[in-house]
Amino acid sequence: MSLNRNQSRTVHAPDFAAAWSGRSQNFDDSYRGHVELLGLQIEAWADDQDYEGDSFAIVRSGEQFGFLRFGWGSCSGCDALAGAETDQDHVEILQMLWNGIEWTGGLEELLRFSESADWENKLMSETVGPWLTAFDAALTRLGSVA
Question: For residue 51, with 0-12 CB atoms within 10 Å meaning exposed, 13-18 middle and 19 or more buried, which class applies?
């Protein structure tokens, strides 16, 4: 099952510059912190366990869920966050993360997506276990509150 990017029109993009300028002094300057600045709730998160790789998340905006996958590197030349020096760099990271979200729709669509996802081909082998654990825990938690 492929995700329908057209459903993203139901989730309005934030003002990226305002999100960045509104961060608190104890802001977590990580990719996860940047996702949170977008006003999204992180339901599941896993990272490749290597010096470079991908991160995976299920995010939520209201009743809409999305799957986010993005890559990162090990140095300022190969990783946007490590190389970020200006406010504009961070605004562009926020835009990149937002644009990388594939919105699945509501909880039922997220469940259908999870059943049809081929995680072994989407993730590095050492990430499959931690991702499935995080994702299953999120689905269980979300299912119990739905």
Answer: exposed
pTM of structure:
0.82
Secondary structure of residue 1 in the 3-state scheme: coil
Q: How far apart are CA 83 and CA 78, in angstroms?
A: 8
Q: Do residues 66 and 102 make contact, with C-beta atoms less than 8 angstroms apart?
A: yes
Overall domain count for the chain: 1
Residue range(s) defining the domain that contains residue 70: 5-145
The string of pLDDT tens digits covering residues 73-115 is 988 889 899 999 999 999 999 999 999 999 999 999 988 888 8
Token representation of residue 22: 């509104």
Q: Which two tokens stand for residue 112?
A: 């259908």
133 secondary structure, DSSP code: H
Q: Which residue has the higher pLDDT, 77 or 1?
A: 77
- Round to whole Å and give the CA distance between 25 and 44: 25
β 41-47/64-72 pair status: unpaired
